[in-house]
Amino acid sequence: MMRYLIKPVNLIMVGSSYLGSLFHPGLTVIKGMPVSIAAELTNNCNLKCPECSSGSGQMKRPLGFMDIVLFRKVIEELKPYLYNVNLYFQGEPMLHPLFFSFIENCRGIHSTVSTNGHFLSQANSEKIVKSGLNRLIVSIDGTDQDSYSAYRVYGDLETVTEGLRSVSEAKARNNSKMKLEIQFLVNRINENQIPGIKDLAKRLKASLSLKSMQIINKNNTGLWLPADGKYRRYEMVDGKYAIKNRLPNRCARLWFNPVITWDGKVIPCCFDKDAEYIMGDLNQDSFREIWNGPRYRVFRRSILKDRSMTGICTNCTSGLSGVKY
Q1: Longest dimension (CA), the chain
Q2: CA pair distance 68, 270, nearest whole angstrom
């Protein structure tokens, strides 16, 4: 009976330590362990999306694939506390040769995969719906090839839509409860196609997430921003585009959901694309040692003191309101 209480008690501990830190910024000691993590299976990708750190070729760190042994070590340590595992960060997770082994090791924890959809063959679709995965997110950013490939460079819309159809049919055959979600990054080129993508999601019995784009090449901001304000993360300030976020001095991500890169580095959140803020290395230390370690304490304190001084925060949506993200 007691083991069923570990997760909710841990959640309460983490939440209370976060709230306590907001009232007393000098106190950044965390109680409990994270309730969610993101694991980067690989930062390799088959596409060349211009506003993606990996796809655009601007990523500064080496490319590679996560060692399944390392992942098992992390899951073994954190499984008693985790409500969710995201099996993606940068790159295309289905490129990993042991992709399905990662899902298998997450049984008993809610798991999510986000993919560009180019590897959803009939065989893979069948395996996915039987794998125990709880949520599959598939990115489609256009309803015709020209608008789609304007962002998903080298992508093939027909391949992705056929893959989605395969997953939807496999779900029906197997009476699967896995959630299928289409993600649509709204930009200037495709915003007029929102009705079409809604119709596609309905036909495939998938949910739909309309999201604003994160832009990493500031010179290109004006090229991508849609007319509809609720999908525009950025606004013009003193002649330059800046994120609408006022960057309040808080961030729950630092208490609830860290990211682990393919090579075992623990970083604070999903906005640290280049792993500039490494909190520790799981090849050397346990997760608990890193989570409660001095680097994390100093970093949490710096965010509570002045978040605007941290580079990765200047393109962050935590605290952003009035925008679909």
Answers
A1: 60
A2: 21
For 128, how many CA atoms within 13 A lie in the half-sphere containing its CB? Answer: 33
Tens digit of each residue's pLDDT (9 = 90 or more) over 114-133 = 999 999 999 999 999 999 99
pTM higher than 0.85: yes
Written as one letter, the residue type at 132 is G
> What's the pLDDT tens digit per position in 291-322?
999 999 999 999 999 998 898 998 888 888 77
Each residue of 182-194: b (16+ CB within 10 Å) or e?
A: bbbbbbbbbbebb
CA distances from 71 to 105, 114, 190, 272, 278 (A): 8, 18, 37, 20, 18
Assess contact for 28 and 299: CB atoms under 8 A. no
By the 8 A CB rule, do 216 and 271 touch?
no
User: Strands 265-267 and 280-281: what pairing?
Assistant: antiparallel
